[in-house]
Amino acid sequence: MGESLNLPESLLVTLIGMMIVFLGLTVLIFMIVLLSRITQRLGQRKPKAQPRQAPSVKLPPPMPAPAGEPEPEQDGALVAAITAAIALMLESEGAAGGAFTVRRIRRVSQQPAWARAGREEQISSRF
Predict the structure, then answer these.
(1) Residue 19: is its pLDDT beyond 80?
(2) Segment 50-57 mean pLDDT
(3) For residue 80, what are the CA distances in angstroms to 61, 93, 104, 112, 127?
């Protein structure tokens, strides 16, 4: 058979192995700190570019919000546009089914995020 190491020799081998590992880690830490300092100095040497001033543009005054219901001819165009968008979306997703009808379009505004998420979940679960 072979000779086996006794306890003091095995402890010495373990101690030497641990010292090599810690020495390697120390060298890695030193290299990381050195590289970070070098990159910081290189970043400080570059002249900072002056931000370009955007030309000032006068914006037209905001349009007033429409009061009440939209006009019937605009309402029909809106319904047609929304219906076409839904049909295109359903067609691209490969949704089965025949024709559908948009019965009502209601504007939803200033809703909390949880209400929007619940509404999207309800809509996606039906298709």
Answers:
(1) yes
(2) 60
(3) 30, 20, 12, 28, 20
Q: What is the pLDDT of residues 71-91, one digit of tens each?
A: 555 577 777 788 788 877 777
Residue 82 contacts residue 103 (beta carbons within 8 Å): no
CB 90 within 8 A of CB 127: yes
For CA atoms 118, 123, 126, 127, give the dihedral sign: negative
pLDDT digit string (tens) for 60-70? 666 565 555 55
What are the structural domain ranges in the chain?
1-45, 72-126
Of the candidates 82, 87, 85, the residue with the CA atom closest to the CA atom of residue 70: 82
pTM for this model (two decimals) = 0.32
DSSP result, the chain: --PPP-HHHHHHHHHHHHHHHHHHHHHHHHHHHHHHHHHHHHHHHSPPPPPPPPPP-PPPPPPPPPPSSPPHHHHHHHHHHHHHHHHHHHHHHT---------------S--HHHHHHHHHHHHHH-
